[in-house]
């Protein structure tokens, strides 16, 4: 990495996540005096041998929510948005990656490496680092946020970032699954990016800078491999629209896409 | 109506049968359609035996076209039927030919702890190449079963029936006697199933409410607005009304004595004979609803213990439960044994027939259940305060033992209840500042559907450190210590609190009420002989059944096994366990090594079971006597619930 602030960002992000999760954990430990409450002096199994149970197992899963070609007369892009996690019920290493390849160039590459801790029934607190890594100048951020399921089964991710170009940023992403049938699923998706400071060399303006939204119709013949068709719309917003050489602004388009949603 | 199986096999069943030919069953299309007798599974050995040698090996087994290198006992799935005699000293040597550890647990048998067969609790397991000899005296009789308690071998077929003849001549002996082992079969590995559920909890549910199903639901719910409201309410809780079975017929073939429905197990009889069918649910994740169209079933035993005969048309059998039924067909025709999965994604099938090869019509599956507010423990309907005596568990006259308290009594308004008419309850003797917990003779279970928020009991609540005197009783009841954790926390491991859990012992179960048939309920079960220990409980342990479906975590009291301590009991202590189900699913709860005397209002004749279905949103209690020292398992018998945390150690010392 060329950016010397990266290790500091990473440390800050993790520290922040840790502080909050410890507080959240304390709330969970305020349990009642139940007959089965943990007690150091009472073994739940024979010495040195516990019943085989998977409740402390670790799991590895990854998903490409978007893996698609976006077509329009002006420009055809290839876009991916995926995440992968490894860990237990509470603690996971979470990696997110998204980006666009257009005309042989990689744009909009955002990669989050996060420590994720479950804090409530549906929410995980995440902290770590974000790297803007593509054909543009590299930026590193300390990352911090929440990810989970809002009521009414909305999937949400809200992240805050500091550092990158000396400013702060936020990314909010939401998706929803409408079941048309049990296998035909319509998924609207919105991603918003906002920045406190412009970074013209990356096509980023201050304020609400970029929106990426899509409506995907997938068919889950197999749960783990569902082809889809989509209408997508992405554009630069506000100040970012006015940078003369902003590829994002130039590529603004309502496009037709098709792709594969796939997970393991 | 007679109906021969003359239609040509479908491609699928043909392939499946070809596959089976290489497997254990030895079936081929030829021998099915040439009407040679199918495999003789379900047969009980003619004599009892007290010395057994069992070999656990991996074996390629194909059922319904799904091939598995399955852990087996003596190379068959299910394993051999073991028949023994009460009063004898049993010796069973189990040799492990696998490359991994194995174990066999004798489900429902009252054995010394070190013979119970749970690795890590009662013994060290059986290492590869090792032989372990189980030795115990048989102190009971009836229908039981055995299964592996190691890894998830049970899900791959390491199960079998165990029949114990009574020491005295069997009053229930019949001309025909068969075991009916219900199960499920898949070539998807248990580890993969769990992993899929971890990523997507509704992975195997293709019966969810969708846009396409809205018109049908609207018709059922009385309009689009109520249908949409119901959908909004469920998604507002991040739950699904169609959440019936975590794993479904999408991957499972439901089996009867190890045979897929298209082949079908056969039990031979002659008209007029009495047939005893010993149903065992050896499935890992499936509750079955069983009926034999055209025949009345007399339920004569539950979990091995004789009960007063109950005539029914249908019964639900939870995972790990057993029921013995007697039927007496007077016609010389075939009858279908029909066991549909609770979620109606498939069925196990067999035929009682006078001649091999004859089939009876297969009934259509019922419509699948849909969860309601009652399953969320929020049932506010159907409250009828005018007739408290008819409420399950409110029988004041027959109970002289302290009954379980209601859970959230604070703020209950009692003015609609006619307390004065309750025998054995003297309101004047209640003191201020007392807690409702200590009201002897009052079983509050049935009051779960009262509107708690409007109830005001402030002036009559009682504290736990002062005993209530029972006006009708000469001897004061013993002190009852209650371990009440209160409502579980809503946390990472728990999604819901049943605000108003209700008594569902007279409820046959979701999907079975009002189907026009007589369906067995737990309320019907009455033991033939009183339980040996008639002491009232001296301690009550309240356990909430909890889980987070979305993260696929299960547990008790908002904690999974690895974060819990043991439930410590004193030797010979008389204990009441009260189970409050805060989840929206059934959990067949199994206590190893002891009888669970289900408190269903039969007093001394409460039925003795080893596995009790806790219905969603319900509250029930059972008594047990801790008369056998050791570490014992206490868990939900849905395998993936157990493995993901719904498990406790009970320590008796
Ligand atoms: Cu369960």
TrEMBL record, chain A:
UniProtKB keywords: Signal
Pfam families: CopB (PF05275)
InterPro entries, alphabetized: Cu-R_B_prcur (IPR007939)
N-terminal signal peptide: 1-26
Name the record gives this protein: Copper resistance protein CopB
Organism expressing this protein natively: Neokomagataea thailandica NBRC 106555
From TrEMBL, chain B:
All residue ranges annotated as the Plastocyanin-like domain in the record: 56-167, 229-352, 535-652
Name the record gives this protein: Copper resistance system multicopper oxidase
Keywords: Copper, Metal-binding, Oxidoreductase
InterPro entries: Cu-oxidase-like_N, Cu-oxidase_2nd, Cu-oxidase_C, Cu-oxidase_fam, Cu-R_CopA, Cu_oxidase_CS, Cu_oxidase_Cu_BS, Cupredoxin
Biased composition (Low complexity): 459-468
Pfam families assigned: Cu-oxidase (PF00394), Cu-oxidase_2 (PF07731), Cu-oxidase_3 (PF07732)
Entry's Gene Ontology cellular component terms: periplasmic space
Annotated NCBIfam families: copper_res_A
Gene Ontology MF annotations: copper ion binding; oxidoreductase activity
Location of the region described as Disordered in the Swiss-Prot/TrEMBL record: 459-487
Keyword Magnesium: no
Biased composition (Pro residues): 475-487
The keyword Methyltransferase is assigned to this record: no
Stored Gene3D superfamilies: Cupredoxins - blue copper proteins
